Amino acid sequence: MRLSPLLEALRPRQWTKNVLLFAGLLFTLNQPLDHTRHLVQSLLAFGLFCLLSGCTYLINDLLDIEADRRHPKKSLRPLASGRLSPNVAWAVALVGIPIFLALGFLLGVKFGLAVLCYLVLTLSYSFFLKRVVLVDVLTLAALFVIRAAAGAFAIGVSVSEWLLMCTLLLALFLGLSKRRGELAALGDAPPTRAILAEYSLPMLDQLITLIAATTVMAYTQYAFFSTGGVGTGRRPYLMATIPFVLYGIFRYLYLIHKKGGGETPEATLLEDRPMLLNVVLFIFVAAVAMTLSR
Questions:
Q1: pTM, rounded to two decimals
Q2: What's 32-60 look like in SS3?
Q3: What is the C-alpha to C-alpha distance for residues 217 and 214, in angstroms, rounded to an integer?
Q4: pLDDT tens, position by position, 219-243
């Protein structure tokens, strides 16, 4: 059974990006906190971000409707294909955004401000930042950082600078890989979006290699620093997660270079069974490591 055009336009598959809001909960399992209450708060934050991001996707698709109609895959989207009325999409977005923003402040002032920052940056991206080379990818990465910070704010815990840095680097890796996938999918055809003409495969390959190495180093440092030093000797087992990070980076590089993946990161992550299993194992081992470190 197919999703209704409106629900499909809200892009529920991309809501997987909001799983990052649970990072604050995962990496504080070693602390004597009310984790049951925090889980409920994280679920509420996750649901709110899913609904808000769905509304911003509507606006983005409304602005890109003509370009999407020239794209072999994006032309199948509800708005581009004509299955969803633009008037309905505008109505849902303009009514939903202020409601979800107000609900964000009900979960806490810091969380509400994070939601506001996410909204402003997302709309800025949709209207003009996505047409500025490199800034477009950096903006998408910043949105992931905001998600990670918002997850911590939702449960009232401090934000780890290392966690934010790892999030930023991983998001840059995925964003650059997405641009590479989009460019590779075009082949010899002209770009459907002007920004793609500003990139080249050799340039993106160099940037991806740089960011991939930096991501691995940053997470390794995060895991090692959590085992010793002033105020950091509380998570001695977190190093057990490093192999899963290495495999995840290597597997993703394999998928974008040998299988033509990367154009849609959520599909690359969810449809590849080894990658999905690796993500599940990483979360499980990280949770066990944090619990044993109490």
A1: 0.89
A2: CCCHHHHHHHHHHHHHHHHHHHHHHHHHH
A3: 5
A4: 998 888 754 433 344 567 889 999 9
